[in-house]
Design goal:
mainly alpha; about 65% helix; 16 helices; single chain; Serine Threonine Protein Phosphatase 5, Tetratricopeptide repeat
Length: about 375
């Protein structure tokens, strides 16, 4: 019983798997029932002969444990987004060497955190960077996923550092991603195409490109975003490219659809594809409004405020694009933003750059 107590004190109960050989659950003390995951291994009579007993029992344990380690407890992309304060704490404790999750769950957090940190101040990006650098990976797939996540962090650093990107800002990211171009893990492919789309789109604003060069970069970015969307929406012919279909919960799929569709919208606007941009923007807002309802129930107040103001900004952009923006819309948006800036100035600072840009764009 000492060993049981030690394990339960050190690990979450759901991380402990107990295999009974020659015993039944009913043989255990009653206080252990329901405390940990307990599995009975087939007895001697279930195998074909005495020489196979130990081998078959070992295989049975390994096969069962491997299936268990698919880890139904690994957080989803949506769970990490909506519950970011909890996962921020986990990253902090992990950097300090005080937290443990299964390898799969840890990789899931490390390759999903890029999205929620965009709704929080700079220090979350620094923490994320530290956690990635401290990551201990032992498989090619996990190395690939961590490599992409590091590329996203590098992009976010550039995005937060200066308004105007410089030539060469994204060269290092492209070098990191070169060996991932044909990687068969669908999530690696999704992250890679999404990030390359961001880099190409941002690079189109750097000096030294003529109009045709900018359009070409933006069309390449659009291709990457569309490819990423085909992975999320499972419209890609996965067998043709040697990949398995990606598996997302509905909430995670909606978040990814919103992320990608938003980037498709702004790219279409910049290549002057006016009608296509409006249609995409309507799709985007429909997805976004559904997510906003979920955020109101699941996310902390800071994220609710930032997301709501972002939604207001998008409504202004869509109204302007459709030629239906009124002075009343601007007044209402201004009042809401001022209320947030007075009540929660740190939230307002997260969106300050975006708010300035939309004000200039709308001449508000």
């Amino acid at each position: 019983m000492l060993e049981w107590g030690f394990l339960l004190a050190r690990l979450p109960a759901y991380r402990i798997s107990v295999y009974l050989v020659g015993l039944k659950r009913s043989d255990l003390p009653s206080d252990l029932h329901g405390a940990v995951r307990i599995f009975e291994i087939p007895s001697y009579d279930d195998f074909k002969g005495p020489g196979k007993l130990a081998t078959e029992q070992s295989k049975s344990i390994v096969n069962h444990y491997t299936k268990q380690e698919e880890d139904p407890f690994a957080p989803s992309f949506a769970q990490i987004f909506y519950g970011w304060p909890q996962w921020r704490k986990f990253l902090l404790e992990r950097v300090q060497g005080e937290a443990y999750l299964s390898p799969k769950a840890t990789i899931r957090v490390l390759t999903s955190a890029f999205f929620p940190i965009s709704y929080y101040p700079e220090n979350d990006l620094e923490l994320y960077d530290q956690a990635l650098n401290a990551a201990d990976v032992d498989s090619q797939r996990d190395v690939a996923r961590i490599t992409v996540a590091k590329g996203i962090v590098e992009y976010l650093k550039h995005a937060r550092r200066r308004r105007i990107f410089l030539r060469g800002d994204f060269d290092n990211i492209k070098k990191k991603f070169a060996w991932l171009a044909q990687y068969k893990d669908p999530y690696v492919s999704l992250l890679t195409r999404y990030t390359m789309g961001l880099c190409l789109y941002s690079e189109s604003f750097t000096e030294g490109h003529d109009d045709e060069g900018r359009r070409r970069l933006r069309r390449h970015a659009l291709d990457d975003f569309e490819y990423a969307r085909s992975i999320v929406e499972c419209t890609l012919k996965f067998s043709d490219v040697g990949m398995k279909r990606i598996r997302f919960s509905n909430e995670s799929s909606d978040l990814w659809r919103m992320i990608i569709c938003g980037n498709i919208v702004r790219t279409l606007i910049d290549i002057k594809a006016h009608d296509a941009a409006i249609e995409e923007y309507k799709k985007y807002m429909k997805i976004r409004m559904g997510i906003q309802m979920v955020i109101a129930k699941k996310a902390e107040q800071d994220m609710q405020d930032v997301f709501r103001i972002e939604t207001r900004l998008h409504l202004l952009r869509l109204g302007n694009l459709m030629g239906e923006l009124s002075s009343e819309d601007l007044v209402q948006a201004g009042d809401e933003m001022r209320a947030v800036s007075c009540r929660r100035p740190h939230v307002f600072r997260v969106l300050e750059k975006e708010i300035k840009e939309i004000s200039i764009h709308l001449n508000a």
